[in-house]
Amino acid sequence: MEPFGIPLATIYLYGLIISGVLTVIYVLFADVFHFSGGDGLHFLNPVLVFAFVTILSASGYLFERLSDLNYGLIFGISAVLSFIVVTLLNVFVLVPLSSAEESLVYKESDLRGRIGAVITAIPADGFGEVMIDSASGRIAKPARSFDGDQIPNGAEVLVVQVKNGVFEVTVHRELESYL
Asked: Which entry of 14, 24, 107, 112 is 20 to 30 Å from 171 by CA?
């Protein structure tokens, strides 16, 4: 069958090229073309639509070139194959990515009030190093004493403030010691 005088394999190839280019453009500029399908129509995500058309075109092209099947059967097999692959892509890649944490990055202002341990002693007028345990791992930063006191290695400290990437810390005293 040759609609418009063009072989089906050529139409599938054009579809593959166009949908592939559109997929790459969408991936590169997804923030500009942000699509919010709301709560109900998440299956109309452009990534899924482009992936469906790309896989349909690729498998249709391959079947047209490598088999002698009827064009309707080729389209049906390609559509089913594409639907299965896109469903797997959605369930095992896109849904987990959308529900994952956006970032493990922290702001320095978030570290104020945290308790850490001195891993390099802090002299009275110099710098040492403090390590803070967090959910995403350990954070080690240069530190200096907020009060101007010497703080020994292994001491538990409280981050009072962060200036220019340097913790200003004081020795952490438990509340019971003040009572």
From this structure: 107
